[in-house]
Amino acid sequence: MLTIADTHFSSRLFVGTGKFASADIMRQAIEASGADMVTVALRRVDLDNPEDDIMSHLDRERFHFLPNTSGARTAEEAIRLARLARAATGTPWLKLEVTPDPRTLLPDPIDTLKATEILAQEGFIVLPYINADPILALRLQDAGAAAVMPLGAPIGTNLGIRTALQVEIIIEQARVPVVVDAGIGAPSHAARALEMGADAVLVNTAIAVAGDPVRMARAFRQAVESGRDAFEAGLGAASTVAHASSPETGIIGEDLGFLQEGA
Amino acid sequence: MQIICNGQRRDLAEDTTLAAMLAMLDLDPNTVVAEVNRKIIERDQYEDLRLRDGDRIELIRFVGGG
Question: How far apart are CA A43 and CA A31, in angstroms?
């Protein structure tokens, strides 16, 4: 079972709540995903058009809210959002995001480390969103991060795990859980992350903008379960030469010799 | 008096409390977090906090996000 900061999670799929066509579809998709951790963002209330609060559509007894600091461009902005998030949720859980460049939304490693140090000191349970940098992952772990969230590809790109080698090194080295976040565009990408030994994945766009988000959520649930099963079962070693799966003796016609070469 | 709420100027009666302003805006105080002059205000202080001319208020809530 997945455990982060002494909290147990029955699912290794975390789901984001952005970009859904309606609150109802979001609720059904989260239900179908089996996720018990959901991410949320903080924004100014639109005073001319106050919509309902997303919290009212999700049962907080059942779902663990992981507020993010999306929109923060510096450590200072992220810390301000983190404190607001804690006031809003009443819990110290936080997905720390510091993304100074709106074009790539890639995370700033230096400000992410700086903010993690300060927020961990303040008692936050910090899950930093990072580029797939193994050294940074260790530095964050030492700074008090409860997990690390390396990206597979930039947010919302559906490109899959383009950072596979670095993610593998992070998984091999980290003592805290590794949650692959961003870029996961298909259930096969999620399965691959779990097969590699990632502790969980976070998926938003791929579910929310699918033709049928509820069915896609179910597909991701199955993929994550498959990937984890495969990891725990132990995948066979890769090889560049063939190893026959059928017996290599008793092949018909061997006495005639015509199957001897290259069979 | 005039305050700035979420970047917009608003006229309010003197001594309006934060709770009264939220009621005027038709916002449920349980779903909103308030910052006044960059200081987070705990919910149990909404009734007591009297806004002052020039206060800068941020009203924040959860939205969908990844």
Answer: 25
Nearest to B6 among A17, A45, A67 (CB): A45
Task: Give B58's contacts in chain A (Cβ within 8 Å).
Answer: 44
* ipTM (interface predicted TM): 0.89
Could you name the CATH architecture of B2-60?
A: Roll (3.10)
Q: What is the pLDDT of residues B29-45, one digit of tens each?
A: 888 999 999 999 988 89
Average pLDDT over residues A44-52: 80
Which residues are bridge partners to B57 per DSSP? B5, B36
| Cross-chain Cβ contact B35/A67 below 8 Å | no
For residue A177, the one-letter residue type is P
For chain A, domain boundaries: 8-236
In chain B, domain spans: 2-60
pLDDT surpasses 70 at A41:
yes
What residues in B contact A39, CB-CB < 8 Å? 65-66
Annotate A136-157 with three-state secondary structure. HHHHHHHHCCCCEEEECCCCCC
Homologous superfamily of A8-236 in CATH?
A: Aldolase class I (3.20.20.70)
Q: Looking at the complex, report in whole angstroms how far the Cα of residue A164 sits from the nearest Cα belonging to chain B.
A: 21
How does pLDDT run across A88-141, given as a tens digit for each residue?
Answer: 888 899 999 999 999 999 999 999 999 999 999 999 999 999 999 999 999 999
Give DSSP secondary structure letters for A184-207. --SHHHHHHHHHTT-SEEEE-HHH
The active-site residue, picked from A95, A139, A189, A192, is A95
Contact B66 A18 (CB under 8 A): yes
Is A95 marked active-site?
A: yes
